[in-house]
Design brief:
Order of helices and strands: HHHHHHHHHHHHHHEEEHHHHHHHHHHHH
Low-confidence stretches: 1-8
CATH architecture of the domain at 95-232: Alpha Horseshoe
Strand content: under 5%
Strand order of the largest sheet: 2-1-3
CATH topology of the domain at 95-232: Serine Threonine Protein Phosphatase 5, Tetratricopeptide repeat
Shape: elongated
Length: 467
């Protein structure tokens, strides 16, 4: 009588979905059990949402939740997985599964450094799927945009990277996905660091800190505006520590590494690694071309310029090498041994050092110790006061257990050297072969000189034993 007076009784699908939306588990279970055959017959048609639902985000969410709840009840309570299988469909039938496969394929290309191909795939995927709605689409679209933004970033397409990332943030905001918002704010932070827009980077770091409650991100916000081009970070038992917070621990695993004030771009890294591989095969002309392309792909990356400088020395183009080493120092002052390599290139350019002696010096580190000692002595016969050769001989003698001879070689390197990068390393190495006040003095000099940033940091760490 009620439905005759006030309208049509809701159909079975609507009754089921309404019970799910209300959280009325008892009514939902009763409906499923009483109408089992009817549901099995109707469910294939239910998989396609009505037009009145498909373009309304809240309605499609409710519809999707209802479908999944019915399929799961049949699988878990009635031991019938057929509805779940229908819902999942084959890869050809299921647009979400197709989406996942294409996204994963593009991400695999990114992992292999194929950023241009991945970008093109993701742009097409976005165009193909942007009209889809529902819970699955709501999860996949931010991931798609985030991956697309990463491709743009690593190809130095910074404006496009920003636009895609902001879209991903907005989609996460609509779903109240705080974790997703924090993830994409992290990407925007890196983007603004790369652009040297430090105030904007700080804003994004604070947003990440607010969403995640991370003290690390609060510190990043404080640091980003005064972050040096290059600094040293310590890793203590797998935890990164700023040098100002580093305390000596006798049983700790401590390593030191470089940290630049901006990320490296993936396309440049790919070309740089290709160049290193070619250089390792002795194909220096091809290697140089890769390093030059890497420089075009990332105008802020020091390592491809460092490698180009080294390669040009192998090619005996010393003055060109010096131009690249100057760029390294501009972008990342103190990058690895670039300062000492630049000094060597100057000696070669001025004719004070022969290419053969330089080539021997480059090879010594990779030789067995006894062979390295013989080759060092041969080179020293031609260049008896060359500090890098004396240093390498001292290291080799130490490896062979000839401590007193090692000390003599290192003292000779210290006496004749004036280049700060090598001087810092000599001071640190020698400090580990002497004791008492001399050791402390050598460590203090190494820490203060900062010609080699990592050796200086290690010296400071060792000095903190007695602080």
């Amino acid at each position: 009588m009620f439905f005759k007076l006030f309208g049509k009784k809701p159909d079975l699908r609507e009754q089921l979905f309404a019970a799910v939306a209300k959280g009325d588990a008892d009514t939902f279970a009763e409906l499923c059990r009483k109408n089992r055959q009817a549901i099995l017959q109707a469910f294939p048609d239910w998989r396609r949402a009505p037009d009145s639902v498909r373009h309304d985000r809240e309605k499609i969410q409710r519809y999707g939740n209802g479908l999944v709840a019915v399929a799961r009840f049949f699988a878990e309570r009635l031991n019938d997985t057929s509805l779940l299988e229908l819902l999942q469909g084959t890869d050809e039938e299921n647009p979400l599964r197709q989406w996942q496969v294409r996204l994963q394929r593009a991400q695999l290309r990114m992992d292999h450094g194929e950023f241009t191909a991945a970008r093109d795939d993701l742009l097409k995927l976005y165009q193909d799927k942007k009209s889809l709605s529902g819970p699955g689409a709501d999860q996949l679209m931010p991931c798609t945009l985030g991956s697309l933004a990463a491709c743009h970033f690593h190809l130095a397409e910074l404006d496009q990277a920003e636009q895609a990332t902001l879209k991903a943030v907005e989609l996460c905001r609509q779903r109240d996905d705080r974790e997703g918002m924090a993830r994409y704010y992290c990407e925007l932070y890196e983007l603004e660091r790369y652009r040297d827009r430090r105030d904007k980077a700080r804003e994004y770091a604070l947003l990440v800190a607010s969403l995640s409650g991370s003290e690390t991100w609060r510190r990043a916000a404080d640091l980003v505006q005064s972050e040096p081009l290059l600094r040293i970070l310590a890793t203590v038992n797998d935890q990164e520590v700023e040098l100002c917070d580093l305390k000596y621990q006798s049983d700790a695993r401590v390593q030191f590494g470089f940290r630049r004030n901006k990320a490296s771009l993936g396309e440049s890294r790919r070309l740089n690694e290709r160049g290193k591989s070619l250089a390792g095969e002795g194909r220096f002309g091809e290697a140089l071309e890769c390093f030059l392309q890497a420089q075009k792909a990332d105008q802020c990356e020091p390592d491809c310029r460092f490698m180009a400088g080294l390669t040009l020395v192998y090619l005996k183009r010393y003055r060109e090498a010096l131009e690249h080493y100057a760029e390294v120092e501009r972008l990342a002052p103190g990058w690895f041994h670039s300062r000492n390599d630049a000094w060597l290139a100057t000696e070669l350019a001025e004719g004070r050092l022969s290419h053969d002696v330089w080539a021997t010096l480059m090879d010594l580190e990779h030789m067995p110790a006894d062979q390295a000692l013989r080759e060092a002595d041969k080179a020293l016969a031609e260049a008896p006061l060359l500090p890098p050769l004396l240093y390498r001989k001292g290291v080799t003698l130490e490896t062979l257990g000839r401590r007193e001879d090692a000390v003599r070689a290192l003292r000779a390197a210290l006496e004749h050297n004036r280049e700060p990068n090598l001087q810092t390393r000599v001071l640190l190495r020698l400090s580990q072969l002497v004791e008492g006040n001399e050791q402390t003095d050598l460590l203090r000099r190494a820490e203060a000189l900062k010609g080699d940033l990592i050796a200086s940091a290690m010296a400071g760490f060792l000095l903190s034993r007695t602080a």
